[in-house]
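Sequence design from tokenized structure. All designs in this work follow the same two-part layout: the structure record, then the generated sequence. An example of the structure record is given first.
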């Protein structure tokens, strides 16, 4: 299931919503959950933040042409200059203190693929279970006016899975806060993902035994850039605390991932649509 990859992008735009700016947090939408801009108000030691709940439609697994509905939950809380950002199964802690530089640890759950997710010949492949992943991120934000409109955020995140066969993932991203008013915001983002050969072989490879069972060609891919994606997240503030947020995005697999029989049997491109309600405090 691809929820681990898709949720953080929505979460970052949520951090840039007008409601968040009306509290002690003046934020915009970067490409990682922890990338929130500097506060316009001094941190007085109080807890402040934002939560969101909603649902959406995402690919069932990496390379799928099958989509499934999914709920999602997000939370971003700041206390004494430290920001905790939870997006589905991924937690980031930003120790940047609201400055231009962002950095901190990441912990989460990796993607998975079950027989209930898959269909056709992919359903006959071995299942891939959930496991923990650990890593860190860095980022830099610049530009924009006092409200955060026009601000850019660049980010880099690396994680390693606790199961050695799932390998290493590196995500690089750039976001731009195009609109930022008291009630409306819109943020555009682009990103690319690098996976080492262990990850690529787990999620896009087909062993000889799996080939016999499924009829897919055996495939042993290498590492490299596995996908590029882009999207837009927008929101409208209904009141000081309540708002709505939506995201539409998509991307394409590249390199050895794109050549996988799993992707050829499914789809080389993917999309997502998410809608939620947010509450700032």
């Amino acid at each position: 299931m691809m929820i681990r990859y898709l949720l953080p992008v929505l979460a970052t735009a949520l951090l840039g919503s007008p409601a968040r700016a009306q509290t002690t947090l003046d934020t915009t939408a970067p490409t990682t959950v922890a990338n929130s801009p500097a506060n316009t108000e001094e941190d007085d030691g109080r807890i402040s933040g934002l939560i969101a709940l909603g649902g959406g439609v995402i690919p069932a697994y990496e390379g799928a042409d099958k989509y499934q509905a999914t709920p999602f939950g997000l939370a971003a809380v700041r206390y004494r200059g430290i920001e905790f950002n939870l997006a589905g199964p991924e937690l980031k802690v930003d120790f940047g203190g609201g400055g231009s530089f962002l950095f901190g640890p990441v912990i989460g759950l990796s993607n998975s693929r079950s027989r209930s997710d898959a269909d056709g010949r992919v359903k006959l492949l071995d299942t891939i279970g959930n496991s923990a992943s650990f890593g860190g991120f860095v980022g830099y934000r610049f530009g924009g006016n006092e409200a955060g409109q026009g601000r850019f955020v660049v980010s880099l995140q690396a994680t390693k899975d606790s199961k050695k066969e799932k390998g290493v993932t590196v995500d690089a991203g750039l976001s731009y806060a195009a609109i930022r008013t008291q009630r409306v915001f819109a943020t555009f983002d682009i990103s690319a993902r690098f996976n080492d050969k262990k990850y690529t072989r787990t999620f896009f490879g087909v062993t000889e035994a799996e080939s016999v069972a499924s009829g897919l060609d055996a495939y042993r891919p290498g590492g490299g850039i596995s996908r590029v994606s882009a999207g837009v997240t927008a929101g409208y503030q209904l009141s000081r605390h309540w708002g709505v947020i939506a995201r539409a995005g998509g991307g394409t697999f590249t390199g050895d991932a794109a050549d996988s029989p799993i992707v050829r049997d499914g789809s080389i491109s993917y999309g997502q649509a998410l809608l939620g309600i947010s509450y700032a405090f």
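The chain has one domain: 3-280. We note this feature because it recurs in several other targets discussed in the main text.
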